[in-house]
Amino acid sequence: MASDLVLYGYWRSTAAYRVRIALNLKGLAFENRPVHLVRGGGEQHAPAYAALNPLELVPSLRDGERTLTQSLAIMEYLDETRPEPPLLPSDAAGRARVRELAQIVTCDIHPIGNLRVLQRLVTQFEAPEGEKVAWSRHWIATGFHALETMLARDSTTGRYCHGDTPGLADACLIPQCYNALRWGVPLQDYPTIQRIHAACGELDAFKAAAPEAQQDAPKS
């Protein structure tokens, strides 16, 4: 039977990656519909997908007749409509902290280095590959320095970003770690982040969400 939840994403999109983690942490079945961000100039620009998501980005999540975009909005929607197990703490201070950590990734690190920004650096400013790499490394390292400081100094950091249960902050952090490794940012410079990354890597919810595990990932 087809799932009511349909996720439109791309195997290497970190925004789609974080939603896959959230869906898996909640044990929710979903249909994965790949949208190739490069082939043919980018399938996200096709009229049918643009009608679904006018910003022409992934992810998009369809829940029955409702379509949602923006990964944080999707994850919080899932938490409100399928509350168990929760992605956010029960207390206001804890929820604020988790959102703070998540938004460092989703608002301050990821948007500066996503595909369309890097493509613009090349097409408009003729940035060579080395400058594109340096750009990505700089902004990831800047954000990770702040995250490491905040995680290391706070007693509410446990095995995961907040306590000993993985949640929304971890779902945002781990895909950004994937990007960091892809661009050559060494995780050993951030020991708390590295430890959380290793802990999450032991969980099936994160393994199944990994880019290489997706149906549209390159086979070679």
TrEMBL record:
GO cellular component, one term: cytoplasm
Domain GST C-terminal: 91-219
Any single GO BP term: L-phenylalanine catabolic process
Record-linked InterPro entries: Glutathione-S-Trfase_C-like (IPR010987), Glutathione-S-Trfase_C_sf (IPR036282), Glutathione_S-Trfase (IPR040079), Glutathione_S-Trfase_N (IPR004045), GST_Zeta (IPR005955), GST_Zeta_C (IPR034330), GST_Zeta_N (IPR034333), Thioredoxin-like_sf (IPR036249)
Domain GST N-terminal as annotated: residue spans: 3-86
A Pfam family that the UniProt record links to this protein: GST_N_3
Family: Belongs to the GST superfamily. Zeta family.
Example of a GO MF term: maleylacetoacetate isomerase activity
UniProt keyword annotations, A-Z: Isomerase
Family annotation (NCBIfam families): maiA
EC number: 5.2.1.2
Protein name, as recorded: Maleylacetoacetate isomerase
